[in-house]
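Field log, afternoon session.

UNIT: design team B
ACTIVITY: writing a sequence onto a fixed backbone
BACKBONE:
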C-alpha cells in the first residue's frame, strides 16, 4: 500500500470511528440505551455516579435501585414531592422540625428531602453496610453534611446486635427478616429509636415526620418509638401485610389505632383517607401516612 493510500485509509477509519462513537453516545443517552448499558456492566464495576441535574447520586450498578437511578435519573422522587405537597396543604410541615428517616438505603429520598429544604435537619438510619457506604458518599458529595446526620444501625426494641439478611439483587429488600434462602446473614448493631435520638441529643418533640421503609420490620421499630407515637408525630411508612401475615396485620393495625385515628393511604394515582382501624389487610403492600 502506498503512503497516500495508507493515509486515506487511516483518515476514513478515524471518520468511521467518530461516527460510530457519536451514534453510540446518542443511543446510550436514551432510556433503552441506558437500560442495556446498566444491565450489561460487568461485576468489576462496583459503583457508579451520575449527575441527576440538581444533585449527584452514587450507586451499585448490580442493585435494583441503582439501575433505576441510572435509567430514570431518580428513584421514586415523586413520592417525596407528593408527600411534601400533602403535608403543606394540611399544615403539617414546620420548617423548624426534623425528619427521621428509618431505612435510608443509599440516600435517594434523603437527598430529595434535603434539597426540598422542608426540614431543619434530617436523621437517616441505615443498617446495611453496603448501602451505608453509598449513603455517606451521597450526603458528602452533595455537601449535605450540615443537614443530614447518619446512623449505621437497625431500629429495634433493645440495643445490641441482630441478624440481618442481605439481598444481593435488591439491596433495598435487605431486612432483619429473612425473605429468601439466598440472603446472606450478617450481624448489625441495633438501637431503639428513642436511644438513637437521645444519642444524637435530639428532643423527641423536634421530629416533625418519621419516614420508614424497612421491609417488614416496621412493627418492631414502631414499638421502639413510643414517645413519638404518643405525640402522634406524622408517620409515613411502607405497610406490608404480605410480611406481617393476617394475624400480625390485624394486631399491628389495632396497636397503631391506639395512637392514631386517621390515616391517608397512597395508591398509584390517588390518596384515600380512612380510619386507621380500617386499613386493608388484603393488599400486599401500600404506603400510608398516619395523621396527628
Amino acid at each position: 500500500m502506498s503512503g497516500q493510500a495508507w493515509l486515506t485509509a487511516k483518515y476514513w477509519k478515524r471518520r468511521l470511528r467518530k461516527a460510530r462513537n457519536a451514534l453510540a453516545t446518542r443511543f446510550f443517552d436514551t432510556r433503552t440505551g441506558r437500560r442495556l448499558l446498566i444491565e450489561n456492566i460487568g461485576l468489576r464495576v462496583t459503583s457508579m455516579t451520575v449527575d441527576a441535574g440538581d444533585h449527584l447520586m452514587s450507586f451499585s450498578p448490580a442493585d435494583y435501585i441503582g439501575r433505576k437511578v441510572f435509567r430514570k435519573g431518580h428513584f421514586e422522587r415523586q413520592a417525596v414531592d407528593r408527600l411534601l405537597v400533602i403535608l403543606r396543604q394540611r399544615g403539617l410541615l414546620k420548617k423548624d422540625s426534623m425528619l427521621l428517616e428509618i431505612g435510608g438505603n443509599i440516600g435517594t429520598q434523603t437527598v430529595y428531602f434535603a434539597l426540598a429544604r422542608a426540614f431543619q435537619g434530617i436523621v437517616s438510619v441505615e443498617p446495611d453496610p453496603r448501602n451505608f457506604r453509598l449513603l455517606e458518599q451521597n450526603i458528602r458529595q452533595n455537601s449535605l453534611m450540615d443537614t443530614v446526620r447518619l446512623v449505621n444501625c437497625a431500629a429495634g426494641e433493645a440495643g445490641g446486635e441482630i441478624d440481618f439478611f442481605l439481598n444481593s439483587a435488591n439491596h433495598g429488600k435487605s431486612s432483619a427478616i429473612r425473605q429468601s434462602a439466598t440472603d446472606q446473614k450478617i450481624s448489625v448493631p441495633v438501637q431503639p429509636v428513642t436511644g438513637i435520638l437521645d444519642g444524637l441529643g435530639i428532643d423527641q418533640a423536634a421530629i416533625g415526620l418519621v419516614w420508614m421503609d424497612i421491609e417488614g420490620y416496621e412493627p418492631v421499630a414502631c414499638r421502639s418509638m413510643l414517645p413519638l407515637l404518643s405525640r402522634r408525630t406524622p408517620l409515613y411508612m411502607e405497610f406490608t401485610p404480605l410480611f406481617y401475615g393476617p394475624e400480625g396485620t390485624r394486631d399491628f393495625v389495632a396497636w397503631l389505632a391506639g395512637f392514631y385515628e386517621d390515616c391517608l393511604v397512597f395508591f398509584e394515582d390517588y390518596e384515600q383517607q380512612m380510619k386507621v382501624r380500617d386499613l386493608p389487610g388484603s393488599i400486599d403492600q401500600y404506603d400510608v401516612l398516619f395523621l396527628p
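LOG NOTE: The chain has two domains: 3-70, 75-290.
NEXT ACTIVITY: expression trials, pending approval
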